[in-house]
């Protein structure tokens, strides 16, 4: 069953959900998990997920494959610079995420590599992935060469897509809805995998006042699945009960939070998880972190309408999924 793990993040802690128990399919266990998820998403918007089946070596392989690329001078990365609305490399000063909340903040201290689906993709192999141009494979200290970044990300995003749909079924159960309540809208969904590279302060220099690796915000889509590394300049979560606190970290767990579209869909029964990533710490000059962030939305033209009472609490105007997410992305993009 879902268990609540005591952390300092909030008075009612973020639960760790063992997804293998959901997969086992026992009705009473599924009911308990659904109740746990509903309670947590009303309180913080966050879950920790274990039993997900993603091999530990896969995200670590992606980190190893991107490390040399990110550490190159900007000139060497410019051929892979992404254009607005596309995928690829984004350098420093590209986004200020806190601006999604209306705050005027300095640019985030992050570089990214993003990948997403090709239009009319088959869903198999490499042909479903954008960008069209990928960094060459770099030399590896491992006995066998690492697979290409494109191969690794193709494997990872396929697993994330399957996992995201499974989580949406669990979320539907938490609302007392049919299991396909959300997944009937994910035949060809919008999604993005973003690799967030947070360089060490030795490379960035001291942060400006009010500057973060990622500024305070809520995500924009339905759910986000995060594979992260623990660090002093790491993830923090904001809750009404406790304010800003370090996010709980379980090495084998994925961090899952819901975004604005999901909150609207539930009529604000659930709250999009507000979070930030702290600036690189002065007392850990060499700390360098890489997060794998899978943003999952739904089919582009899905009309998201708030569930009515007694499930929902607020009735938002209906909105089309892709148009909403793109409008929010435009608010934070600087270049």
Notes on the protein architecture:
- With 335 residues, the chain is an alpha+beta fold.
- The protein has helices at residues 19-24, 27-43, 57-70, 74-77, 149-174, 201-204, 260-265, 321-332, and strands spanning 3-4, 15-18, 46-50, 88-90, 111-117, 129-130, 191-198, 214-217, 223-227, 235-239, 243-246, 254-258, 274-277, 289-296, 303-304, 319-320.
- Helix 2 (27-43) packs across helix 5 (149-174) and helix 3 packs across helix 5 (149-174).
- The chain starts with a strand and ends with a helix.
- Mean pLDDT is 90; it is low at 1-12.
Q: Order of SSEs, N→C? A: EEHHEHHEEEHEHEEEEEHEEEEH
Stretches where pLDDT falls below 50 for ≥5 residues? Answer: 1-12
Largest sheet descriptor:
10 strands, mixed
Shape category: globular
CATH fold description: Jelly Rolls
Report the count of strand segments: 16
Query: What gap, in angstroms, lies between the N and C termini?
Result: 46 Å
> Helicity range of the residues?
25-40%
> What's the architecture, going by CATH?
Sandwich
How many domains?
1
Rounded to an integer in angstroms, the radius of gyration calculated over CA atoms is 19 Å
Structural class by helix and strand composition? alpha+beta
Oligomer: single chain
- What's the CATH class, please? Mainly Beta
What is the H level of CATH, i.e. the homologous superfamily? Answer: B-lactam Antibiotic, Isopenicillin N Synthase, Chain
Mean pLDDT, to the nearest integer, reads: 90
| Structure annotation, total helices | 8
Topology:
Blueprint: E1 3-4, E2 15-18, H1 19-24, H2 27-43, E3 46-50, H3 57-70, H4 74-77, E4 88-90, E5 111-117, E6 129-130, H5 149-174, E7 191-198, H6 201-204, E8 214-217, E9 223-227, E10 235-239, E11 243-246, E12 254-258, H7 260-265, E13 274-277, E14 289-296, E15 303-304, E16 319-320, H8 321-332
Parallel strand pairs: 2-3
Antiparallel strand pairs: 1-2, 3-12, 4-5, 5-6, 5-7, 7-14, 8-13, 9-12, 9-14, 10-11, 10-13, 15-16
């Amino acid at each position: 069953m879902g268990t609540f793990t005591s952390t300092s993040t909030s008075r009612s802690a973020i639960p760790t959900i063992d997804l293998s128990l959901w997969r086992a399919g026992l009705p009473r266990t599924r009911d308990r998990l659904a109740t746990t998820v509903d309670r947590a998403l009303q309180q913080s918007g966050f879950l920790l997920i274990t039993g997900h089946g993603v091999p530990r070596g896969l995200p670590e392989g992606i980190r190893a494959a991107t490390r040399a690329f990110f550490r190159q001078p900007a000139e060497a990365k410019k051929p892979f610079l992404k254009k607005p609305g596309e995928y690829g490399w984004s350098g420093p000063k590209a986004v200020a995420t806190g601006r999604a909340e209306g705050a005027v903040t300095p640019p985030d201290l992050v570089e990214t590599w993003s990948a997403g689906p090709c239009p009319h993709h088959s869903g198999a192999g490499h042909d479903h992935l954008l960008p069209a141009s990928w960094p060459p494979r770099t030399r590896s200290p491992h006995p066998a060469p690492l697979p290409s970044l494109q191969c690794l990300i193709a494997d990872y995003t396929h697993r994330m897509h399957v996992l995201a749909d499974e989580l949406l079924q669990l979320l539907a159960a938490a609302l007392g809805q049919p299991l396909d309540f959300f997944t009937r809208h994910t035949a060809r969904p919008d999604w993005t995998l973003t690799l967030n590279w947070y360089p060490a302060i030795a490379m960035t220099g001291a942060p400006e006042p009010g500057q973060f690796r990622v500024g305070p915000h809520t995500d924009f889509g339905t759910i986000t699945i995060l594979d992260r590394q623990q660090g002093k300049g790491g993830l923090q979560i904001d809750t009404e009960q406790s304010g800003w606190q370090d996010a709980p970290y379980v090495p084998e767990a994925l961090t899952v939070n819901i975004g604005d579209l999901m909150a609207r869909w539930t009529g604000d029964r659930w709250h999009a998880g507000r979070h930030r990533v702290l600036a690189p710490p002065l007392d850990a000059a060499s700390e360098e972190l890489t997060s794998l962030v899978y943003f999952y939305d739904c089919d582009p033209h899905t009309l998201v309408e708030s569930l009515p009472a007694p499930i929902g609490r607020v009735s938002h105007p209906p909105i089309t999924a892709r148009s909403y997410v793109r409008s929010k992305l435009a608010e934070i993009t600087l270049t």
